[in-house]
Amino acid sequence: MSAQSQYTDIFKSELVDSATVDGLFIAIYENGLLHVKVPRYYSIDLDVFIKCQNYIRTYGEDKKYHFVFEFASFSEVDPELRKKRASSEGSEFSLSDALVISNLPQKMMGDFYLKFNKPVRPSKFFFSLEKAVDWSLNLKEKSLKSN
């Protein structure tokens, strides 16, 4: 099984496009999920965030996605970006954020983010990519039923 088919199975959708943007793997799926894979020891800062936004923008200025971030060990988000990402300005393309983490320090940082940065969109931390995808798809279904 190729890496691409593994992800299409997990995300339960065909891949629209994928790219590596400044070291981050980004994949956009037909079902409206957007996967961001953050490598080990990587810190996402505002500059990287803007480059990723520019890539996403090529698929439509007004398109919104359910983001699934997959953080490897020792990867993190810069404090300035955490604050911006929690705001409506920093979630221009985001309907929700499912964040997959792999260790306790990341969990502690996630709890801090939820409690003190208070993201404006649904956000939840997971230790499993599959559970994060299922949560995102459930949110998508609920929003479709309520419209």
Overview of the molecule:
The protein has about 150 residues and is of the alpha/beta class. It has one domain. Helices cover about 40% and strands about 30% of the residues. It is built from 5 helices and 8 strands; from the N terminus they run αββββαββαβαβα. The protein has helices spanning about 5-10, 45-55, 80-85, 105-115, 130-145; strands at about 15-20, 25-30, 35-40, 45, 65-70, 75, 95-100, 125. It has a 6-stranded mixed beta sheet, sandwiched between helices. It has a two-stranded parallel sheet with strand order 4-6. The longest helix is centred in the C-terminal third of the chain and has 18 residues, at about 130-145. The termini are far apart. The model has no long low-confidence stretch (mean pLDDT about 90).
**N to C succession of SSEs:** HEEEEHEEHEHEH
End-to-end separation in angstroms reads 37 Å
Secondary structure tally, helices: 5
Quaternary structure state of the chains depicted: single chain
The value of Rg in angstroms is: 14 Å
Instruction: Please state how the strands of the largest beta sheet are arranged side by side.
Output: 1-2-3-5-7-8
Any idea how many domains? 1
Rounded mean pLDDT score? 92
Uncertain residue ranges = none
Helix content: 40-55%
Structural class: alpha/beta
Q: Indicate the overall shape.
A: globular
How much of the polypeptide forms β-strand, as a percent range?
25-35%
Tell me about the largest β-sheet: 6 strands, mixed
Task: Please report the total strand number as a whole number.
Answer: 8
In short:
The protein is an alpha/beta fold and 147 residues long. 41% of the residues lie in helices and 28% in strands.
